[in-house]
Design brief:
By secondary structure, the chain is of the alpha/beta class. It is 45% helix and 14% strand.
């Protein structure tokens, strides 16, 4: 400590007598000597050592002549790093900026944008306003991803918009107790999964099938498209009748029942939930069994594709309306449940 004080007083004396360069060089050499004597193996420079050389470069032009422990570029690099840290410290915000948007709002905006690809920031912002969400339109626009091409609707939306104009048809067979084979024709409207027509015959023909189309869609109720398979029963008479009614055919590929899934699913439900549990006696018996099942199918059976509702929507009964009562359907194969007051 006493030695450092003597060095400082001697440097001040040289400065006062006009020997500024000699004093600064003396300080530079003594500082390097102190580094050498402080470390035995590898030279370790402290932040104070670096600060000393940074200040010396600002006050003495000939500082390079006295530098021996490091390269001049090293000192310049120290200076640049010091300036960077200095300005970074000064650039820190004293006060917090705009508060961040809640994660729930961000998630809601993303869900709205994904479900409504035709919407922009103004529409999403307006919908949020109706939900009582206070957020600026500019914030909403920052959450929306930029699209490189015009937005496209999803396949689910496209099919849902055309479901009201789509009808599927198909045949399936039912054997009777005596071995006779009855052919059942079903026509299913995709909208609300409603069976619009059922017909039974023992000898189907193209003319008979064409007549069933007329009975299924009287007046101006014909659909826009009719989905069917490549069965030979759909002959020239049938196709001409469709053209006259303004119905366009959509024919599935050969041996590809998955291309007409809705009516195939209906036939599967008819078999699994009804016909597999009944021995059909005659044409009239089959008609009565199908009528009972379709009454249950339309009015009571819940469908996954209809958000677990029936084609004819069922009213929700509150617990306060009474006890649960079971009503037999399809001869007891199924039941419908309601609440009734005691």
């Amino acid at each position: 400590m006493l030695t450092a004080l003597l060095v400082l007083l001697r440097s001040i004396g040289l400065l006062c007598r006009g020997h500024r360069a000699v004093a600064l060089e003396n300080l530079a050499l003594r500082q390097q000597l102190a580094v050498f004597t402080r470390t035995r193996t590898r030279r370790q420079l402290r932040p104070t050592d670096r600060l000393f050389w940074i200040l010396l470069t600002r006050t003495w032009r000939e500082w390079r002549t006295a530098l021996m422990i490091v390269q001049p570029e090293t000192v310049l690099r120290w200076h640049r790093h010091w300036l960077r840290r200095r300005w970074a410290q000064r650039s820190k915000r004293i006060r917090p900026g705009r508060p961040g948007t809640d994660a729930a709002i961000r998630s809601l905006v993303e869900k709205m944008a994904a479900a409504n690809p035709l919407w922009g920031a103004p529409r999403v912002h307006g919908e949020l306003g109706k939900l009582g969400v206070a957020v600026s339109e500019r914030t909403v626009s920052r959450f929306l991803q930029r699209r490189r091409r015009p937005p496209s609707q999803t396949w689910r939306t496209f099919l849902a918009n055309h479901a009201a104009a789509l009808v599927s048809m198909d045949f399936f067979t039912v054997p009777t107790v005596t071995g006779r084979v009855l052919f059942v024709l079903v026509l299913l409207a995709h909208h609300h999964r409603r069976v619009v027509h059922v017909a039974i015959t023992e000898h189907p023909t193209a003319a008979w099938t064409a007549q069933q189309i007329i009975e299924a869609f009287p007046d101006d109720t014909a659909p826009r498209w009719l989905l069917r398979d490549r069965d030979a029963i759909y002959g020239d008479v049938f196709r001409r009748r469709l053209v006259g009614m303004g119905i366009s055919e959509v024919v599935s590929a050969a041996s590809s029942p998955w291309q007409n899934p809705y009516v195939e699913r209906l036939i599967g439900s008819l078999r699994r939930e009804c016909l597999d549990h009944v021995v059909i006696l005659s044409h009239a018996h089959l008609r009565g069994v199908l009528a009972a099942y379709l009454s249950y199918y339309h009015g009571a059976r819940t469908h996954l594709s209809l958000q677990k509702d029936a084609p004819t929507p069922r009213r929700i009964h509150r617990p306060t309306e009474g006890h649960v009562v079971a009503f037999s359907e399809v001869g007891g194969l199924h039941h419908r449940y309601e609440r009734r007051a005691a």
